[in-house]
Amino acid sequence: MVDNSKPSSSTVSRTVLLFLRVLTFVFLLIALILIATNNHSDDDTGAKVKFSDFYAYRYMISTIVIGFAYNLLQMALSIFTVVSGKRVLSGDGGYLFDFFGDKIISYLMISGSAAGFGVTVELDRGVPSNSFTEKANASASLLLIGFLFTAIASTYTAFALPKKANN
Hints:
The protein contains four helices and two strands. By secondary structure, the protein is mainly alpha-helical.
């Protein structure tokens, strides 16, 4: 008689991976909204500053959008895998796609976060913190958290590689 009371370790791994992808999705969505709507008007001069005025913030939003699109794809693939128990991308190619995709996207996300933090520090040097730099800093922080979840997901996909190579 087989005991089916506990889920298999691969089912737990797939569910944890899906959970990490959902968390990444949420943090990237909030980061995207914050940076895309970020602008500031100077009351004294009437000058308006927006995120697109700074190359580093443009780079940051690009990494958020790329990470968001990749994560959306991976989330759909993970949902299919958890629901059906089968992988869309079968064979070693699917595991390699997950592994290298997670690595590349996480590196992009950390570089976008670093760029956002860097320009915010530089902007705060000459002018005291304002709502513009605070929102940009919050967006960079959320991107950093998204990176952490993607890096953890990358670890899970790395563990899947040797299991499949040995079978």
